[in-house]
Amino acid sequence: MLTGLEVLLQKTPKRLKGKSIGLVVHPASVDHSLNHAVELLHGHKDFQITALFGPQHGIRGETQDNMIEWEGFVDERTGLPVYSLYGASREPTAEMMKDIDIMVVDLQDVGTRVYTFTSTLFLVMEACSRHGREVVVLDRPNPINGIGMEGYLLEAQFRSFVGMLELPMRHGLTMGELACMYRAARGLACPLQVVRMCGWRREWWFGSTKLPWVMPSPNMPTPDTAAVYPGTVIFEGTNISEGRGTTRPFEIIGAPRVEPEIFAGAMNSRNQQGVHFRPLFFQPTFHKWAGELCGGVQIHITDREKFQPFLTALSMLVEITRRWGEHLRWKEPPYEYEKEKLSIDIIAGTNKLRIGLEKGRTADEMQQEWMEGLNKFADFRKDFLLY
């Protein structure tokens, strides 16, 4: 199996030769031997890299949390200017692209709508459409496979930096497929080329690719994290800890006053497929409840093919609301540049999840609510599948 980066290096498309290239990358932009895209392309006879761009968490992956902006700098190794796409501007400006013909994007996604690298790709495409530049996407695998889909479809009124396209939370698409879908949905004028992977299969999880896992962001340490993330990211919209400040972010969920044995027992009694909940105490070193003792659970996936991350996390939130609801709070804005709407609504892509919880609806009832939209999306996405 070869990534788009590796395919590009085997045979350079004619349209790239002799063109000035802006390269959008992060720490996970590597090949099977852990060589980074910058070192592979800069100085290569076929490529003229004139600028580097980085998304949220920095081009080097050093900014730990959400909403921590970073500034551009000059890369000491290459002498190239590095521009931030998570700072004063979230898209490349005309000034940034003045010496660029083509923007090449090589970002490892994790298959979840709210992961902002997708939004960075879309904003790059919009900027290129306005300024007459071409976009080339070096495709990479969806690490949680290209089949599974789950969750509410994003509603237009809840578009934000964590949701720019009408996708479910777990969409089952690659970055290249998402680029094709976004270009069609928004009617963008920018020429788009996707350098497809060779040998990737939709049913594959990340381990099947034999690629080394490099953290695409600081709180995505393992493929197991990516597997639970489409669900437990909803806890970012609450005062419940999603495990930031621990060594297993998004796999550990809890807060002060939550009783681990009761919580785990209630969740395990649901007999949800593919998952087991282990009671535990933890003390985050930063972020929510830093330095305070929290009770909660760790999510252990026992069968990833049967595991439903969004339904699982929603079931957990239903249980917390039922037992410890007097302590549950929705996170107030701002959240990822949204200053008015509640964070939980922005994350869910709808207010139906929050309203359902406030009305005491079950997770299964809410799942039935999102299935119609999910089925329509499954049909719509067929035109954009590249594998």
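[next item in queue]
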Amino acid sequence: MSTIISEGPLLVSLENGVKTIIFNQPEKRNAINSKMSTLFRDAVLASEHDDSRVIVITGSGDHFCAGADLAPSSSGGEFDVSQFLRSTYNPLVTAIRNMDKPFIAKVRGNCVGAGFSFALACDLLYASPDAKMSQIFTKIGLSSDGGGGYFLPEKIGYHKAFELMALHEIITAEQAEKLGIINKVVAAGELDDYVDGIVDRLINGAYLAIQRTKSNLRAAMSQGLEAALEQEADNQGLNFKSKDFFEGVAAFLQKRKANFKGE
């Protein structure tokens, strides 16, 4: 049964462990305004405690997210953007990375500015061939936000990231795949089914081990080898005591598919 959590400019639903968050301002290519940002932050933070096991972020219509809706902030100095970022974007982006649940970005069309940063924050990123991606901020006299200055060099290195960001280059889905920015380009008509298949594998796989794999990777990326080794030791100790581990070993020895329960 599907539970509708939010309607309007941000659509949020939860069904069978899958939370779907949809930017819903298609007439503006899903540019995200202050209200949407607050709803998005709340939807992401709520995932820590609700029944979601995988969170899919996407956009309605033909686009993912064209970044911030600039119309309300055209007054410039009257808007405290630093406070807004600290209270809204920053906590939602850190939650995506720090929460031991998989986040998937499903991208079509424009994925630029903050929208690109949100997609980069996710654990998996799949896109249709028509997707266009850019840290486009410098085109209008801004620098990056939403974690783009961290996530892009994390994926492609400092020098290429600086080039793409400083020159506000727009890259295609194919280019993004070659650079290692996204996991896979999937034909537009097949993207939904493909992502559904990934979601199914995550939810029905060894879910506790998958969560702890994210934890291990986070420790490695943020703190280095020694922290990663320590985190792996702690998590493997927990895995060894889980019912999923015993089921996995039994299934391997019996040459059958494992029936993981997340226990």
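[queue empty]
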